[in-house]
Specification:
Elements lengths: L1 H43 L7 E4 L6 H10 L3 E7 L6 E6 L5 H7 L4 E3 L14
Antiparallel strand pairs: 1-3, 1-4, 2-3
């Protein structure tokens, strides 16, 4: 008779174990989603007057990217390249917050905060 209690006890322990792993997996997924959301907010939030890292397609030259920034109303600060590719990346600023959405229509791929992740996605020219 005692073996039945041990068997039932073991089955319920396994069931509780499965539930706790499922809860841990759900909590981990929620935590990772929250971290990704905060990182995305930090990466893509740029205020007027602050610099932004503007990524251009690989086929664009520095001169073409410079002209696009000026045409959109921005102030080019310096050119660099990304660690992900040899595409042109300009650090630029603008007094108008709409610049960062306008520059995409002038040929930029994406605008990100250059200080996010301590600028580790940009190559240092020094």
């Amino acid at each position: 008779m005692s073996w039945r209690f041990a068997d039932r006890s073991g089955a319920s322990d396994r069931l509780i174990g499965r539930r706790s792993w499922r809860g841990l997996a759900i909590a981990t997924a929620i935590s990772l989603f929250a971290m990704a959301w905060v990182l995305a907010l930090d990466l893509f939030t740029i205020r007027a007057g602050e610099p932004g890292a503007i990524f251009f397609p690989s086929g664009a030259s520095e001169a073409q990217a410079f002209d696009a920034i000026v045409a959109a109303g921005g102030l080019p600060i310096r050119a660099t390249t990304s660690i992900f590719s040899d595409a042109v990346v300009w650090i630029a600023a603008a007094d108008d917050a709409a610049f960062f959405s306008t520059i995409v229509s002038h040929g930029a791929l994406v605008v990100v905060n250059p200080l996010a992740f301590n600028g580790c996605f940009l190559r240092s020219d020094t």
